[in-house]
Amino acid sequence: MSISCIAIDDDPHALQSLIAYVEELPNLELVETFTEPLKALAQILASNPVDIIFMDVEMPSLSGIELATLLRKKTTHLIFTTAHARYAIDAFKVEADAYLLKPYSIMHFSKTINSLYPTGQKDGDLSLEDSFFYIAVEAGGTPVQIDLNELISVETIDDEIRFRTMSKAFTCPKSNFINTLKLLKKHPAFIQVSPSVVIAKQHIRGVFGDKVLLFGGLSYSVANSHLSAFSSFLNNNL
Predict the structure, then answer these.
(1) I want to staple 131 with a disulfide (CB 3.0 to 4.6 A). Which of 40, 48, 145, 194 is the partner?
(2) Which domain holds residue 169?
(3) CA 121 to CA 133: how far, in whole Å?
(4) CATH code at 112?
């Protein structure tokens, strides 16, 4: 199911940039845009709630902070987009979920959305039929969409997290994917084999003692702390 969004910004150029970013993320659906805050207020109050409202702060007639106070109950998440960092405390007071400082990049935008929807889905359930998040590739900093079917393992290494797919490996800051990691640990298609490693069940190619062999020759040791759960998985699937 798509994530419905509304964008409010009196600057047409900033609004167009936001629209372009939304179009880059497949699960976002921009249902309405506004350049006039008073018009936005009237129409949004008369409409059904949405999942995200993107809102500028400095606007004529009505500031984004004032508008947010009136519209906060009409959206699950509120994200401010502004060129002024001094409004951050005011944004916190109106329960904003994020604060994008202009000019922000597609990378910053996608990370912000991922922090709110780690799976790319509104209900928080991971699906093996869909891609579920964007991550930053070190070479060039390009957003890359990882499909759960392609994901072999996830490793936490100090303050970093490494996603290994059937074709590549991506290393990213752990702090950006804490929620994603929690969801993967609970997902029935994945199993945790140590405090720092989660693997995809469908990519297991063999088990030799405490070693698990995965697609592409990748292997991990099953920690004593996770041996009982892993043995139960094997017994139920032999």
Answers:
(1) 145
(2) 148-237
(3) 9
(4) 3.40.50.2300
Q: What's the pTM?
A: 0.56
Q: Which helix (H) or strand (E) holds 133?
A: strand 131-136
| pLDDT value for 122 | 67
Give the helix/strand (H/E) hosting 16. Answer: helix 12-24
Number of domains in the chain: 2
Distance of alpha carbon 41 from alpha carbon 236, whole angstroms = 56
Residue with the two structure tokens 């906060």: 72
- The predicted-structure confidence for 27-68, as pLDDT tens digits, reads as follows 899 999 999 999 999 999 999 999 999 999 999 889 999 999
Say how far apart CA 192 and CA 179 lie, in whole Å.
Answer: 15
Is residue 203 one of the residues assigned to a domain?
yes
Residue 137 belongs to a domain: no
Question: Among 108, 56, 113, 63, which Cα is nearest to 82's?
Answer: 56
Is there a single domain that holds both residue 39 and residue 102?
A: yes
Nearest CA among 165, 156, 233 for reference residue 197: 156
Q: How confident is the model at residue 209 (pLDDT cuts 50, 70, 90)?
A: confident
Within 13 Å and on the Cβ side, how many CA atoms surround 22?
A: 21
One domain, residues 9 and 82: yes
